[in-house]
Amino acid sequence: MRVPRALFAALALATAAAGGAHAAGAPVALYQAKPIVTGTGETNRRIGFALAFEDVLVKVSGDPRLLNDPRVADLAKDAGSLVAEFRYRDRMEGIPIHDEQGSHDRPHDLTTIFAPEKIDAVLASLGSRPWTGARPTIAVILGVTNGERKFILASDGERGIDMRDSLASASLKVAIPAVLPNTAALASAGVSEATIGSVEPGALDALAKAAGAERALVGTLVWSDAELGWIADWTIASEGKTYRWEVRGVSFDDAFRNAIRGVAQVLSGNGQPE
Predict the structure, then answer these.
(1) DSSP secondary structure letters along 206-263
(2) Considering the entire predicted model, what is its pTM?
């Protein structure tokens, strides 16, 4: 499907109106992403630009609903025209090429930096805008259940190391800092796998502050054989309102991406996560 001419016209007008400057207060770092691509050829570069484009739209706006907008998928096909700079890093750097495939099949980080005024114009054409407000640090207070194995994810715990890495990756992707309380702070606040659903909100606020955060995101992550994946439930309070959402039958990587994108949607003023 071709991008409608009307959308291109709206984009051109919005670019002109932007006057070459991105929204005041939006750091330029928000306008870059780093997808992983195979090799450095043009075909895979275009795929990488499209992935980076979608990531940056969500990062800048705080609105993950844009990922479901068919206009975004169409615009992503020509994302290269919005790129100001890009560079590669061989993820196997220092490892000699040892097969007949050569360097074109090696994985690379493709750091992609978009022109801020062009991304702002795209957002305007989609009825969205940059999120220029402060991005508070989030303390993630999460109970994990996998059969008989139950624990609270902690910054210094012996369990959930891969989950901690996954949370860090999801946090970086949306530019919302996320931290985990340590085991001592969790115990002091009376948070355990048995009590996580009933701890007083005031205790969670104090726990978040003790972890160096400003807000608490409370969640449960339960493995389901029936769903062939994890069921994740998330809760966060903002502006006197409590927001809850759920995702089912996903990997824990997807669960953490859902969590941080949901936080972005709430805090950016884009409403209830789906």
Answers:
(1) HHHHHTT-SEEEEEEEEEETTTTEEEEEEEEEETTEEEEEEEEEE-HHHHHHHHHHHH
(2) 0.85
